[in-house]
Amino acid sequence: MSHPDLLFVPYQDTLDLLGIEDAMRICEDVYQMLARGTIVHSKPPSFKLDVAEGFNNHWHVKSALLKEIPTTGVRLYNYFNDGTRNTVGYLECARYVFLSDPHTGHGLGIVDEHWTYGIRSTAAATLACKWLGPAQARVLGLVGVGAMGTNALRCLNKLYRFEEIRCTSRRKDTRQAFAKKWSSELGIKVQLCDTIEEVVRGSDLVVGGTTSSDVMTREEWLKPGSTFISLARRELDPAGWARMDKVVVDSWDMNMLMPMFSSMVQNGQFSRTQLHAEISEVVAGTKPGRTSPEERILIHTTGLVEHDIALAHYLYSRAKEQGLGIRLPAARPRD
Q: What percent of the chain has pLDDT over 90?
């Protein structure tokens, strides 16, 4: 039996093939798979090649097998970071997911993951608001209005109808452009704020999605009943985690691989016993979501490779059905 050619799904095709609601649905399905124990991770779960001196170059590789699809995927990306310029969220860095058939080992496809990475990073966190968010979130606060903040808004707009959006960012011109675009597109007020505290105080729902390694938001700024979504690093002061009513993460083990998270645990600021649940447990109903309108809840995610692989397989399948993508000839003997 001959093995298939590979299908390369380029960035432009991924934009047309994957919508916001599809991404949120697929990410939720993956949490259900996690709860059922049908996902197998590589050992070690993450391979890194970081060369700072002279290059500021970083390769990260992760893989998993999703039994229910079924597919095996290897996600690999390469970026530049010299402490001033970081290309992680930009098109100039290399981002691909390689898919194969777990029953045969045949390569199936290579999917550009710039769009899936951008939307997965927020869809996998924001969908948890269905169980953990305020019942009626009228005021949304965005700390950072880059790719993370923008995609978080796109996702949350599927769950809520906001009356006001507050935002801040490092550069004033960036937040002014953001406010102009989204106030026009959504037909609601987008308020520019000079400080993070102005954004957070009084907001029902807050998203922290910056590229900074500094603490951005203080726990005491969060009002009763609010939900804070942390999409990166130190968006919420580590000293405030234990004072939240519930803390939920996408994966304790994956977060423990992150230096800033593990240092918080090692310093005694937060512990496994203080964690309410992983998102998969809440989605599957084995742990409760919000149980009081007054609870302050933190949702923190680092990103799971199984989401990337499931989204890549969805794009591969749709591209194949619609005759999109570029065929790459598989290795075969010469005649």
A: 88
Look-up: residue for tokens 């600021």? 269
Contact between 175 and 210 (Cβ < 8 Å): no
User: Does the model's pTM come out above 0.85?
Assistant: yes
Q: Say how far residue 291 (Cα) sits from the centre of its chain.
A: 25
Identify the sign of the CA torsion 176, 212, 140, 161. positive
Query: Minimal CA–CA distance to 208: which of 234, 183, 184, 189?
Result: 234
The residue type at 61: V
Q: What is the dihedral of CA 20, 142, 280, 13, to 10 degrees?
A: 30
| Predicted confidence (pLDDT) per residue in 258-268, tens digit | 999 999 999 99
| Residue recorded with tokens 């959504």 | 186
pLDDT tens digits, residue range 118-177? 999 999 999 999 999 998 999 999 999 988 999 999 999 999 999 999 999 888 898 999
Sequence-ordered alpha helix ranges (H) in 207-327: 252-255, 259-266, 279-284, 305-322
Domains of the chain, each with CATH number or no CATH:
6-118+305-328 (3.30.1780.10), 123-300 (3.40.50.720)
Local structure of 241: helix, strand or coil: helix
* One-letter-per-residue 3-state SS of 178-239: HHHHHHHHHCCEEEECCCHHHHHCCCCEEEECCCCCCCCECHHHCCCCCEEEECCCCCECHH
Give dist(CA 316, CA 172) in Å, integer: 39
Burial grade of 306 (CB within 10 A; 0-12, 13-18, 19 or more): buried
Of 53-67, 115-129, 210-224, the poorest mean pLDDT is in 210-224
What is the SS3 assignment for 146?
coil
